[in-house]
Amino acid sequence: MLPYKSLIQIDRTSTIPLYIQVCNYFISFITKGTLQPSQMLPSTRILALLIGVDRNTIKLAYEELISQGWTESIERKGVYVLSSLPILTQKNNPDIKNLVEKQDAFIWTNKFSNAVHSKNLQKTQLAIDDGFPDVRLAPIDELMREYRSISRKFYGRNFLKYGDAKGSENLREALCKYLSTTRGLHVEIDDMLITKGSQMGIYLSAQLLLEPGDIIALGVSNYTTADDIFKQTGAKLLRIPIDDYGMDADYLEQILKKKKIKAVYLIPHHHCPTTVTLSMERRLKFLKLAKEHKFAIIEDDYDFDFHYANRPFLPLASIDHNENVIYLGSVTKTFAPALRIGFMMGPSNFIHSATALRELIDRQGDTTLEEAFASLFNQGEMNRYYRKALKIYKQRRDMFCELLKVNFPDEMVFKVPEGGLAVWSVFDTNIDLIKLSDNALKKGLYIDNGLFYKNELFSTNGLRMGFASLDEREMSEAISILKKVIP
User: Fold this and answer.
1) Closest residue by Cα to residue 485 from 429, 410, 412, 433
2) DSSP state of 39
3) Within 10 Å of residue 321's Cβ, how many Cβ atoms?
4) Buried b (16+ CB within 10 A) or exposed e, 224-243
5) How do strand 215-219 and strand 263-266 relate by DSSP bridges?
6) What is the rounded distance in angstroms from the CA atom of residue 164 to the CA atom of residue 348?
7) In angstroms, rounded to a whole number, what is the distance separating the alpha carbons of residues 20 and 22?
8) For residues 426 and 287, what is the distance between their CA atoms, to the nearest angstrom?
9) Alpha-carbon distance 114 to 481, whole Å?
10) Structural domains for the chain
11) CA 470, CA 144: separation in Å to the nearest integer?
């Protein structure tokens, strides 16, 4: 007989009834293979004595096991583990060998064995991030006020039901007006899909455009997550040089004489990671090439709203008359990243298919949250926020760049960005960014180690250094720590 006295530990302070506790122990013994089919359970009298409970408690536990189909009562013999249950092998204490066996418990294709998950910035107190907004500036109270107000109204309960997979009609209408005013984009609301951030738009575009072996052109330096999304489809990545004027359209033109490509992925404003802006001449050249060679342009315009020197160039989508451009943007990348609201626009048939695909992986977004954002746009709250944030971020950019210039004249090279929320800094090759990141974290500062930006052709010893989420005091403290850990 098993050592039930030590195996079954009754907790008399628990809200779970004693007989259920006993029942759960026996279920665990059976599922782990400790008790096998047709094996006899101890009598109610013996078990009650062993674990120090009333005999009726054991009777109730056994009755529950029988009713759940784990055991059976055989007249004049006792209670047995159900004979028809499958035989389960008893597990030993986990060790390295067992962990390997557990990993291979079923057959599957692991395409992400080398994946590195994103950093959790919710637990960091001080961070020089990748270039994220300061959530303290966003009108969160106003957004939550609208959210609560909508949920309390009689029509608000309808937003808790399944809705349009394209997203809130009111938000799409508000965004269409906003994009028309600020970016010269004229689009019908049926040709817009609300996404969980621009990253979902990249994924949907890739899945619809690319088949294994197709070629997609993108920057030698590029947003690494987009690279990974395109690779996951089986597509081949064609790297195009990036200079101070963005991706080289002339280089692509020469490639197109020899190869056929399916799509081009562009980040025209504040390219990731280098922050350069694509010139208007090249924008027009890319549109011309797309029309001639019939490829799609995925335009990722994730932070158009923050441009400091002058008005930003118009998006390619606003001057595209041949419907070659799939336009992706983000609301929350410039508001609060975790809220996850972006948008995707393109030809009607393409958006229809993207909506159908989106339904397969995520039926719809949070309609009430989308309605709350629609209210902020319609009330002018979002415009006020963007104006306020733009002014503050410009001040922070100037201060951050001055601190870098004064404190690290020989350790790094950078250009003051015209827009966006980060500075691309190239460090001296003698500085080990991995060690720098580790040492900074020990002193209370999170800063990336640069590995995220590297690929098979791009290995610059550089970092995107976000300034927008740091106020004046935090910025000074962060630079002070950074100065201590840079050799």
Assistant:
1) 433
2) P
3) 7
4) bebbebbeebebbbebbebe
5) parallel
6) 16
7) 5
8) 31
9) 31
10) 4-81 (1.10.10.10), 121-132+390-485 (3.90.1150.10), 140-383 (3.40.640.10)
11) 24
**Cβ-contact 433, 461 below 8 angstroms:** yes
CA angle 381, 417, 175 (to 5 degrees): 30
Q: pLDDT by residue (tens digit) across 383-425?
A: 999 999 999 999 999 999 999 999 999 999 999 999 999 999 9
Six-digit token string for 204: 């949907």
Contact status, residue 28 vs residue 81, Cβ threshold 8 Å: no
Query: Which of 376, 329, 351, 347 has the alpha carbon at shortest distance from 164?
Result: 351
User: What is the CB neighbour count within 10 angstroms for residue 221?
Assistant: 24
What residues contact residue 101 under an 8 Å CB cut-off, 6+ apart?
A: none
DSSP, collapsed to helix, strand or coil, labels residue 212 as: coil
Measured CA to CA, the distance from residue 305 to residue 334 in angstroms comes to 8
Strands 215-219 and 78-81: unpaired
Q: Report, in this order, helix, strand and coil percent for the chain, each rounded to 5.
A: 45, 15, 40
- The 10s digit of each residue's pLDDT in 55-108 is 999 999 999 999 999 999 998 899 999 999 888 776 555 444 444 444 556 777
Cα–Cα dist 29/248, whole Å: 65
Contact 165, 367 (CB under 8 A): no
Percent of the chain topping pLDDT 70 = 94
For the chain, the residue count is 487
What integer is the mean pLDDT of 221-238? 95
Count other C-beta atoms under 10 Å from residue 50's C-beta.
17
Residue 81 φ/ψ, nearest 5 degrees: -60, 135
* 114: number of Cβ within 10 Å: 6
**Residue 439: C-alpha distances to residues 278, 395, 449 (Å):** 36, 29, 11
Q: Is the dihedral of CA 387, 390, 396, 402 positive or negative?
A: negative
Under a CB-based contact definition with an 8 Å cutoff, are residues 394 and 308 in contact?
A: yes
Structure confidence by residue, pLDDT tens digits, 16-54: 999 999 999 999 999 988 999 999 999 999 999 999 999
| Tokens at 444, concatenated | 């209370």
**Phi and psi, residue 24, nearest 5°:** -65, -35
Residue 328 structure tokens: 């992706």
Contact 252, 289 (CB under 8 A): yes
> What is the DSSP secondary structure assignment for residue 117, as one 8-state letter?
P
- Exposed/middle/buried for residue 308 (C-beta within 10 Å: 0-12, 13-18, 19+): middle
Longest dimension (CA), the chain: 93
